[in-house]
Amino acid sequence: MKTLTDLPLSGKRVLIRADLNVPLDESFTITDDNRIQQFLPTLKYVIEQGGKAVVMSHFGDGNGKFDKAFSLKPVADHLTKLLGKEVRLAPDCIGPEVEQLTKSLAAGEVLLLENSRFHTGEKENDAQFAAALAKNGEVFIQDAFATAHRKHASMVGVPKLFKEKAPGFLMQKEMEYYEKSLIKPKPPLCVILGGSKVSTKLNALLHLVTKADKLIIGGAMANTFLAAQGLQMGRSLVERELFPKALEILGMAARRDCKLYLPVDFIVAPSPSAKGLGRPVPAPEVPADMMALDIGPASVLLFREVLHNAETIIWNGPMGAFENEDYAKGTTDMIEALASAHGMTVVGGGDTDAAIHKMELDHKFDYISTGGGAFLALLEGKGLPGFAALEN
C-alpha cells in the first residue's frame, strides 16, 4: 500500500474521501469541528503540493434525495475560514456539471462535493454511482476513518477504480495507533469497555478477552455480568438473554489469566433523569426499586489501581449515564485517571471523546480516535473495508 507522500499530486485532480459529518445546532452552526480539524493536515498537504483538491463526504444518515438540512454548505463555509481561502460547494457530487467544475480547478484550489448520501447508490455501493464519483479525480486519498467500516460506494467502490491511491494522514495515524495499542501492544494491556449494552459490544468482548491482560467493564454493561453471577440489580438495565455469553466471557478470562474487573459499588437512583437522588451503595446491595446509573467511588479507586502499572490502555464507552451530570462522576473520574496514567492511552467512541473534550483534557491522551463504529470494528478484530480497498 502506498502512502500519501508517495502519490503524484502536482497539477492532479485529487479526490479525497473525508468524514466531515459534524454536529450542527438549530442555526446550522457547527458545534464540534474535531473531525474537520483532524482532516486539515491531509487537505493542506494536497494544496501545498499543487494538487487540485476535490473533497467528498456524507452528512447525516441521508435518504437518497436532496435535503437542505443535510447540505454540506456549513462545512464549506467553515473550511473557507480555516484555510483562509474559498472552498466552493458543488451543486451535487456526480454529473457533467460537477465533473467540469473539478476540471476548471487551478492548482491549490478546493472544491467540496455535495453530500454523497443524497444518492441511494452511496449506501448500496452501486458500481455506476462509484464510477460517476471516480470521474471527479485522477488520484484518490482515503481519509474517512470514522466511516471505514462501511461498504459504501465512496468508501470501497471508488478506490478500486484508481491505480494511484493511498490513505490520508488521519487514516494512517488511526491505523498506526491501532497497531501500537492492539496488534503489538506493550504489556500489560488494559482495556476499559463501558456503555449501556453488552449486545453492542459482545464481539469486542469476545475478541478482547483473548488479547488483554486486564479488562475493566463499566457502564450498564457491568449490570449484566453481575446479574449473571446472581447479584440482584434492582430495576437496572440488564440483558438477561446474554447471561450465558457473560458467563462464557468470565470463564474465558479465567482460563487465559486475563484479569477481569467489574464495579464493586454503584450510584443508584429511581431513573436516569432523576436529579439530586443519587447515592452510593455496594454492588450486592442495589435496592429493588433503584437503578445502577454510575460506578461508585470505590470502583473508581479500584479501577485507578488496576491502571497503575498498565503500559497500554484502550478505552471505549462511558462508565454511567453521564448525560445527566448526577451520574457523570464515574466517567469524569476515569478520564482524570487516564489523563495521569503513565501508559500509552488510546480512546475511541463518540461519547467518551465528547466528555474528554468537554473537560479540556484531550492533550493528556496519546490518541483520541475520530471513529466510533470503525474503532469498535477494530476492537472486534475485524478489518476495515474502506482501508482494505486501498490495497493494490
Structure description:
The protein has 15 helices and 15 strands. The chain is an alpha/beta fold. It has a six-stranded parallel sheet. A six-stranded parallel sheet has the order 9-8-7-13-14-15, with helices on both faces. A three-stranded antiparallel sheet has the order 11-10-12. Helix 8 links the parallel strand 7 (189-193) and strand 8. Helix 9 (221-228) packs across helix 10. The protein is elongated and about 70 Å long. The model has no long low-confidence stretch (mean pLDDT 96).
Keywords:
alpha/beta, six-stranded parallel β-sheet, Rossmann fold, 392 residues
The protein's oligomeric status is: single chain
Count of individual domains: 2
Q: Give the SSE order as H and E letters.
A: EHEHEHEHHEHEHEHEHHEEEEHEHEHEHH
Principal-axis shape equals elongated
- In round numbers, the mean pLDDT is 96
Outline of this structure?
This protein has 392 residues and is of the alpha/beta class.
Write the layout of secondary structure elements.
Blueprint: E1 13-17, H1 34-48, E2 52-56, H2 73-83, E3 87-89, H3 96-103, E4 110-112, H4 120-123, H5 127-134, E5 139-142, H6 153-157, E6 165-167, H7 169-183, E7 189-193, H8 198-208, E8 214-217, H9 221-228, H10 243-255, E9 259-261, E10 265-269, E11 279-282, E12 291-295, H11 297-307, E13 312-316, H12 329-339, E14 344-348, H13 350-358, E15 367-368, H14 373-379, H15 385-388
Parallel strand pairs: 1-2, 1-5, 2-4, 3-4, 5-6, 7-8, 7-13, 8-9, 13-14, 14-15
Antiparallel strand pairs: 10-11, 10-12
